[in-house]
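quick one, 512 residues, struct below
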Amino acid sequence: MLVKTFGSALFGIEAIPITIEVNIDKGIQFFLVGLPDSAVKESQQRIEAALGNTGFKYPKQKIVINMAPADIRKEGSAYDLPIAIGIMAASGQLEPTALDRTIIMGELSLDGGLKPIKGALPIAIKAMKEGFSRMIIPAENAAEAAVVAELAVYGAENIGQVVGFLNGEPVLERTQIDTEADFRMNNNQYEFDFADVKGQENIKRALEIAAAGGHNVILIGPPGSGKTMLAKRLPSILPPLSLDEALETTKIHSVSGVLGQHKSLVTARPFRSPHHTISDAGLVGGGTYPQPGEISLAHHGVLFLDELPEFKRSVLEVMRQPMEDRIVTISRARISVDFPASFMLVAAMNPCPCGYYNHPDQECVCSPGIVQKYLNKISGPLMDRIDLHVEVVPVPFKDLTDRRSGEGSQAIRQRVMQARKIQEKRFEGKADVYCNAQMSSKMLHSFCEIDDAGRSLLKNAMERLSLSARAFDRILKVSRTIADLDEKPQILHEHLAEAIQYRSLDRESWGS
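---
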């Protein structure tokens, strides 16, 4: 008897429907075809044990299973459940008509229990688009898939519940999520707040500018000066995720398997902080069958690279193109996958190997030229993509012992959101440009006009501080953001002056 069940394969962060055809005939052999990987091939043993341990019968006949389309690689153990249900239906233990317009995914334990899968949300979105009416998945993934309200999602604990439900028994309840209410309730929850920061008002100001314009920023200062603490609080002042942004971010986290059980949406902007021993593929994504990397997991959020010079140079260089294009393409011989990668880069580093160059109290013990050599570990093209270079100094004792709370993240966020609204209006109708950091050179001429006094100031700064030509555009973009925070249509003299001070760590002037 021939029976068809339906599953799904993941292709990047998108899903492709898979038809699982099960045919049982005379004989004793088991055949599984359709380009399955080793995990899929091993499903026979898991299914046989699961059915036997839950009181069902595994047919001792010839079983041929085809996973169509046969030219797409099938990976992972999530096909256990649809294959098992197909075998039961083909052997007469289940009514085949119950499988119509139903997508089924899940990994089986030997006792018949269901384990969570990756990519439940993109699978549910594709199932809805393809006209499926319901979806049966492990209970841990039900809340995630139920974000797609048009699809009836049922979460099961074991295969017995799935069989009972398909036979018409009321053993499973539909999982329903009020997506918008859940999103609104959780999208302002952050563990860290700028109110906890003592002193460092100039650094908080720099991070506010970075958040308002979407600028990349590097913090440079001695150990213990608060670089990591400040960076961790940056997501709390970024504008809240929109629902579309949350869905796109959730898809990436779902495919990577880092979303968490019983979680429906990523409601807060991601903060990713990989260790400096990370590989190229770990940062930008890759593998034989490409998976998202850290820059994609930081999509619509913050990527924090602590101790930047300690990262391998090759790892940092592969990040350059995604920083500009906000998308990374992973190409292999048989497959090419695009992953979104629109993130804010926040980097932190010590000013020299000993950490105390320019320290107000401790003396640097590095020999001449070592400071510049240490900074040279970061390539010019990468530094060119960092708009704000901010020097962090240790917090004085009087600020550390001050019991008064600083300005909270919520107040700063309101100013950032107001500046972003100005930019949204400015770039209305311009594709893929949402903030000042994304402006092209052509846009600079239109939106960053300066008067003669400002031009003279910028010329003097370039000459006296030995700033490079590549710093010119960055200063204009940052000054445009400062003017937006000040709600001024024109870039004024003071806006340029503040922007110039954030280039004090440019390669030609720092450490020389």
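Residues 183 and 354 are 46 Å apart (CA to CA).
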